[in-house]
Amino acid sequence: MSKSITFTIQPGGKLCGETRVPGDKSMSHRSIMLGSLAEGVTHVTGFLEAEDALATLQAFRDMGVEIEGPSNGCVTIHGVGKHGLKEPKNALYLGNSGTSMRLLSGLLAGQPFNSVLTGDKSLSGRPMKRVTDPLAKMGADIKTTEQGTAPLQITGKAGQLTAIDYTMPMASAQVKSCLLLAGMYAQGETRVTEPAPTRDHTERMLAGFAYPVTREGSTAMISAEGSLKAMDIDVPSDISSAAFFLVGASIAPGSDVTLKHVGINPTRTGVIDILRLMGANIEVLNEREVGGEPVADLHVVYSPLTGIDIPEHLVPLAIDEFPVLFVAAACAQGQTRLSGAEELRVKESDRIQVMADGLLILGVDAQPTPDGMVIQGGKPIGGGVVESHGDHRIAMSFSIAGLRAQAPITVLDCANVNTSFPEFKDLVKALGLDLVCTGA
């Protein structure tokens, strides 16, 4: 895949109109994983046809699962049952997808075959000890590089995993989900306790597939006693993708945007809560439940923003949205302070440092800290050339900054926008951002 894609954004403009952003990435991954392990045929609509979720789909095809599609977001999965996966002939290549790699490491640890998980340069630099260490306590045999990174060489330990009672040192939905999937193949009851709430799509979807998973307070519990029954899944729009439009409409005078059918799972709505604390005008309309997940339409109109100290309890509920929230902070009057977000340093890029570097180039007073950032907002945003470091959320965030810039912004290395949101450039242009995409 060529890495030469550049976004050039002309300054100013506003966002107006109605749109539906693509399906939720977290749920798209999990629909393939659990549908493959279910008995019967699972039908998925709203599936995210982007590189990360497609990497998960291909991995299960490589393990013998018949999957039709995707076609216009529709996927049909012919489940093989909990013990029906076959040994892949080659390494499973997961591209840029940390979710695929971390969740699959738990799922594959208890299989009767060996497997190797690889990824692109960015994924190969991301820490995997956070999942391989607790999995080792369950009896898993997973080898990493000396740095604790991919490729992961997994020796299947079918029937040999034992349950653990694990308190996670940091709030991570990927670690929690990895251990719950491993717990489906372990003797005894696996218990995972999280220090702060994280997205609960895995637990909700397991329950939807009729697999017994229980919760007591901040602890989720699962055992090998159970099987998955096929179901129909309608994947709502991804709130992490909607966040770019929520911020864009909040910062650009004259904006008025409605986002249809967005997932508003309470473990994911930190971005709405934070923007509202800053003074954003966001209405939640037409609330309903689809497949066990809450969904609504979001209506946002421009409103002047004010800097805040971001409450730490909201940090895990908005962890993927901070790059674009930093742009909101740059446009807000006064100081915005984020702390408790050291997790941002080990995403697709070091999102704290990369966003601070880019904001400084645009003339914004942004000071990185070990676990967050302090931004003095409200001054004019300039133009310039910023580096996305191949991180899709960085690229899209600096594109949105163009709405309030006084000169053109050029964002380099934007190919990885295709990992989560290939339609971004077309949707944002249709709503009013002057963005030109050049390169392959």
Concise description?
With 440 residues, this protein is an alpha+beta fold. Helix content is 28%, strand content 25%. The chain has 12 helices and 23 strands.
Mean pLDDT: 95
**Total number of helical segments?**
12
Uncertain spans, ≥5 residues at pLDDT below 50?
A: none
Radius of gyration: 21 Å
Terminal residue distance: 9 Å
Helix fraction bin: 25-40%
β-strand number: 23
Beta content: 25-35%
Strand order of the largest sheet: 21-22-1-23
Q: In terms of structural class, how would the helical and strand content be classed? A: alpha+beta
- Report the biggest beta sheet as strand number plus sense, adding barrel if it closes: 4 strands, mixed
